[in-house]
Amino acid sequence: MSTSFWHPQAMMSTVKNNEIVIDRGEGSYLWTEDGTKLLDATAALWYANIGHGRPEIATAVAKQMQKLEHYQTFDKYATRPTLELCDRIVDLAPFDDGAKVLLGSGGSDAIETAAKLARRYFTATGRPDKRIIISRQQAYHGLHGHGTSLGWLPANREGYGELDPAVLRASATDWHDVEKTIMNTGPELIAAFFCEPVIGTGGVIFPGAEYLAEVRELCRKHDILFVSDEVITGFGRTGKWFASERFDLQPDMMTFAKGVTSGYLPLGGLVVAPHVAEPFFADEGSLSFRHGVTYSGHAAVCAAALANIDVLERENLVQRVASLETVLADALAPLAELDGVIDVRAGVGLLGAVELRDAQLANKVEAHGLGHGVLLRKIVGGNVIQISPPFIITEDEIQLIADTIAAALGE
Ligand code: PMP
């Protein structure tokens, strides 16, 4: 066993000599190196949406790599899969004609891009004072520089000294608090509002349609850019291609990652509404957005994304999520009656959570799952069990996840 890998986000004292090495995947199942078969109840980190081990993605990537692995896309250069993917995403996303797409290597990259572009847009349009960003209690927006400042899970902010002081926190469920924050600060100083339409890592929190509608309207009224962080919800997880469509958010910018490739290769990006992109696209303009990374629009990665979207479309997997929404909610609902359960959340696509009394109990549930063929995951303070299976999961397998949690709690 390797002793040199430093696991992301891990307490290494508890991981040492305790690693689980995943060796193989097929559909909704994974096999560890010692041969144990596990049902992937979370689609890994909410991304394995079309399931594991699909040969059509491997074939598409190999074909692209044999022709050209990548050529960088700064300035006037591009590769064909990069261009095709951006057009495809704009066709699927709930934006007016003329939206633009910026690409990076994951969700955190997309958040950096969105935070910088929000501020850059207002300097470009003569309002440099608009630079404060509001994000929400329990938010998770990745862990790069801006993402660390925009997220409000305490453990992720500790030990770095002062984070970006131009980020303010507002309630994730009470829109009046958002309004108060805007009015107390002064709308003329606020650039953007960052919003996961369903909070993921912060505990699978559904803010409610009224909250989303009201904050969207507040942003419109005060010329604050509404940034929909769809790193988890994008590409079908809520039963629509994007949660922004489901909740009619008409975002000014929208991040995506995970589901764009179902995790076959690392990719993230930002869809930008035409009016935000406009100053940078004006004929004879002299403005550029000096942002981008070596692998922006990586050719082989974009080929994987195109093949992944083909699978989602060909197999009607987004509609499948919509049809499984009540199946998941009905399967999880009885858990609310069990000892140790604080709350059960479900009802939007294939997103669910079982909040337990404490992290110790959640550890036991996770261990029980591992012993009984179901791979579960704990989020937030370690006391919430995440349920976000691949879109190809069956009704019986959804029931098995719920039964396994129930059996663990019964022990
Ligand atoms: N935003 C949200 C809503 C996320 O859930 C995540 C990842 N879980 C990120 C941003 C960051 O994405 P990545 O880990 O790919 O950098």
From TrEMBL:
Q: Does the keyword Transferase apply?
A: yes
In Swiss-Prot or TrEMBL terms, this protein is called Aminotransferase class III-fold pyridoxal phosphate-dependent enzyme
* GO molecular-function terms, A-Z: transaminase activity
Indicate whether RNA-binding appears among the record's keywords.
no
Sorted UniProt keywords: Aminotransferase, Pyridoxal phosphate, Transferase
Tell me which InterPro entries the record gives.
Aminotrans_3, Aminotrans_3_PPA_site, PyrdxlP-dep_Trfase, PyrdxlP-dep_Trfase_major, PyrdxlP-dep_Trfase_small
Taxonomic lineage from the root: Bacteria, Bacillati, Actinomycetota, Actinomycetes, Micrococcales
PROSITE patterns assigned to the protein according to its UniProt record, in alphabetical order: AA_TRANSFER_CLASS_3
Question: Which Pfam families is this protein grouped with?
Answer: Aminotran_3
Q: What family classification does the UniProt entry report for this protein? A: Belongs to the class-III pyridoxal-phosphate-dependent aminotransferase family.
